[in-house]
Amino acid sequence: MKKSNLNTLFIALICGLFTLGHSAQAQSTLAVENVQTLVEKYKSDIRGPYKDIRWFCTDGSVRQPKDPCPDNIGPGVQHARYKDEVIALGKSNHVYLGQILAYTTIDELWDNNHNHSRLKQYQLDKYLRLVDNGWINQKGQFYRGSVQVEDEEAWGIDFYKTILSKDAVVTDNFYLIRQSLKDIPHNGDDNVAQLMRSESKVISDLYVPFMDLRTKIHSQPEKADIQKVIDFKAKNQKSLTADLNKKLDGLVATMNTFFKPVDVQALLNKSKLIKGTTLGDKVQSFVNGRSNDETASYSVNETAQLLLEIREELLTERRSLARLQLLDISLKLEELLFQNAPNWQPTTVSGQLEKICALTTASVGAGYLELWEWEQISGALSKFNQDQLSLAELTQVLETARAAVEWSAAMVKANYQEVVNTYTTFEPKAYAFIDDRIRGSVALHLGQSVGELGDFISQESALTNKVMDIANQSTFRGLNPGYAFGELVVVDGSSEDIEVSADKIYIFQRSPSDLKPVAGIATVAEGNMVSHVQLLARNLGIPNAALSDQNLQSLKKYDGDRVFYAVSNKGNVILKPESQMSDQERGLFVKKERNTDKIEVPVEKIQLGNTDVLNMRDVDASDSGALCGPKAANLGQLKKMFPEQVVEGLVIPFGIFRDHMDQQMPGENSSYWEYLNVMFVEAERMRSANVSEPEVENYQLRQLETLRGAIKKMPLKEDFMNQLEAKFKSVLGSDFGKIPVFLRSDTNMEDLKEFTGAGLNLTLFNVLDKEKVLEGIKDVWASPYTERSFKWRQVYLLNPENVFPSILVIPSVDVDYSGVLITKGINSGNDKDLTVAFSRGAGGAVDGQSAETYTIYDSNGYRLLAPAREPMYNTLPATGGTGKKAATFQNRVVNEKNMAEIKTLAKTIRETLPKETNSDYEGAYDVELGFKEDKLWLFQIRPFVENKKALSSGYLESITPKINTEKEISLSTKL
């Protein structure tokens, strides 16, 4: 067996020698197309990614393959060495191809500094080998001696012996460690479920008529499918090649293995370390109980409970190898549940609720949900023994169960999405890995059961979705009311590089972080309900819904079709072809005048003569739109009301921006300001000449691009820079360039009563260097003229040309977690409730992160709507810039003390802010805040703006069913 220090010494030697000869390659990231070339080359290379085979002896020496290590320096291990460019790729891109465990140290594979990337790559590599005939080892898999199975298994046992000995590591990474057991050899077992799915995928890729059976095996596998495959082979015999016949026979053999009854007793007998322990006795009791009751319902319930108990009590077992045996039993229990869940067919509502509760329990035990999340939702899911529930109560059970499915899928994505995204750039087949993991989990059966309950409740409430002709429509749920008509665009993959259009409807896995105007949107990963994108959609009446990944896949066949899309005030969803639109629906899109439903930003009170850098303490809400934008004005107001919870700050008012814009613009016979206004005059002339609106917009965007570039190079006036020097010292208490600050764009065209503008302009995080602050000021001044910002303003404002940016400069607070408070219940619909969403680190929730979200009830208590599932979070180092840290999910973000403080804050804001500001505003507020060592910090407050037209639309009201939420449903009702 090899020793870790031997491998470390050897790898360091090889890498060092290689670096000398290839330093230029090692220092820069290899381009994606070059990685693709390597992958394709290795597929046809008889040695794959490997160079040669050597013996590695315990003294650090390396010997030829036919010259094994002598006894005095043995026994050593034999395996391949990587090609030089494979080593270089690991150094330059942190991409590790064809990893050999015996050639790797435990710390290298665990890869803690890169969020366990190498371990995840190893798992992804195993998947690709299954679905692509060996992948980069298509030929190399026959390279004899490159990998020794017994050495890999021995290494795997050492790996788990080390990893499982650390309680904190197990607690923080339970899901990942348990999943890795399916891939890292340690006991001779294979991941049969994944093999079954991959074999069926390979067959359908080669022979399209098998697609229906493949879909069945992937979504609802059951023992009867074995005979269906046999019958398929017989029916299609004339069309099948010898290779397809062989592959079908292989699939049947794998399915027989998969559906063979799981023998937990045999596994327990092998797991000698846990015999006689508390958990060992529970496993034995489970085996005995099943022999007395073989019904599927009993088996699923008991399996789920044992899965949960193993997770809850795992750390009470102190021996790492005993923990390994318990986790192996846990995996077998999940296989057993996977087999039995389809056989439990409830006939009543009570039975369906009981099955959902059991499957959610199993999801917790298998690591897809965290233990604290289960504590939050278990009460809602445990009502199946009651005689009846109101329709409102039953709907809340459905929402909770649907959330559990979404959270389970999000756990898989949070762990693997980053690695999958990296690999997909050079190997598209990698993209299906996450779907494969989800389909191989208990979440598959949980999702089906929740869908069936959703169908029943839809019938009882008449709150039905009508989405084309796809299946499982109850998994659609509306987020923002509105309606749209246009081309449907279904994006199955990353959305960041998609160029969107304002007249199209988009279905995304996850919406882009800088979304430009669209007609309608629906997402699988909704992010959170108070992100900037969600607030803009709500403000502008853009229909917005959440859907399942399966729904997205079903809609792909309609990509490019023209459709009508609507979300009602109660959240039911309509999506139908243009040909099925009613006259009423067509009438919604009759062309209207350009200024219809737009608002005009008042500019008569703006004070452009003030060119002094201001102390934020000297501004308040009355200065909004006069000296500065609402961010600075409102934060100044909050500083007066909550002096200990708001930082000091500087305000660069509108007048300083306007003063700089009066300078001569290089290359033009005008000032920057005159150049801007000439553009708007010309745009109106073009419209008067009947030039098409897209052509007018294109002209404006070209001009704005020129202006934006010029502003970024604009000279700053000496008096202004001297003021900054002085105010940093006197107000912020530090020399300019010695304290990191946020630079927040703050225009007169945001946070209005009828237009939010959330996230449209630039915020620069944690800028320290003096020159970077000065560059940042110009970047922020230029940001209102970006394409995205301009297009959103064009949608809603009559006078978007009168934009004036001020800048709020505040010291950075490296918060532990941050987020948003909305002083109304968005989910509950109660104006007296609160909605909060928090993510770890700085900038939480506002950029669409998967945030921990709650409704805090006015009466008492709160409800968890979603946990955080963001794998990385922002930190704000004292040296400036932003850092990234890996998140774990085993603990909640917001604690009970924080909840109470937020509730008190909201009460104070509601009662005192209108009085303090002499405002007649009666709506809800949108507050950005954070906590550092449990101290609350306030960063922003603005009106929470909803689209009044959407909320009062006669059409939307007509498609919103009148629901009697107090209607009692007997749980003995037949499904």
Explained architecture:
- The chain is built from 35 helices and 26 strands.
- With 975 residues, the protein is α+β, with helices and mostly antiparallel strands.
- 45% of the residues lie in helices and 14% in strands.
- The strands form six sheets. The chain has an eight-stranded mixed beta sheet with strand order 5-12-11-7-8-9-10-6. Strands 21-20-19-18-24-25 form a six-stranded antiparallel beta sheet.
Mean pLDDT: 88
Q: Would you tell me the structural class of the helices and strands?
A: alpha+beta
The biggest sheet amounts to: 8 strands, mixed
CA-based shape: globular
Helical residue percent?
Answer: 40-55%
Task: Please report the total strand number as a whole number.
Answer: 26
Q: End-to-end span in angstroms?
A: 60 Å
Number of alpha- plus pi-helical segments: 35
SS strand fraction: 5-15%
Looking across the biggest beta sheet, what order are the strands in?
Answer: 5-12-11-7-8-9-10-6
User: What is the CA-based Rg, rounded?
Assistant: 31 Å
Brief synopsis:
This protein is an alpha+beta fold and 975 residues long.
List keywords for this structure.
alpha+beta; 26 strands; disordered N terminus; 975 residues; eight-stranded mixed β-sheet; 35 helices; globular
Chart the SSEs and their pairings.
Blueprint: H1 4-21, H2 23-27, H3 32-43, E1 50-56, E2 62-63, E3 77-82, H4 84-93, H5 106-110, H6 117-131, H7 149-163, H8 167-172, H9 174-180, H10 192-206, H11 211-219, H12 225-235, H13 242-259, H14 264-270, H15 278-292, H16 296-313, H17 320-340, H18 349-365, H19 371-381, E4 388-390, H20 391-424, H21 433-439, H22 443-461, E5 466-467, E6 477-480, E7 482-491, E8 504-510, E9 520-525, H23 532-540, E10 544-546, H24 549-555, E11 562-567, E12 573-577, H25 583-587, E13 614-615, H26 630-641, E14 650-652, H27 654-661, H28 672-688, H29 693-712, H30 718-730, E15 741-747, E16 763-767, H31 770-782, H32 787-796, E17 805-811, E18 817-822, E19 834-840, E20 852-856, E21 862-866, E22 872-875, E23 883-886, H33 896-917, E24 925-932, E25 935-943, H34 948-952, H35 954-958, E26 968-970
Parallel strand pairs: 5-12, 7-8, 8-9, 9-10
Antiparallel strand pairs: 1-2, 1-3, 4-26, 6-10, 7-11, 11-12, 13-14, 14-17, 15-16, 15-17, 18-19, 18-24, 19-20, 20-21, 22-23, 24-25
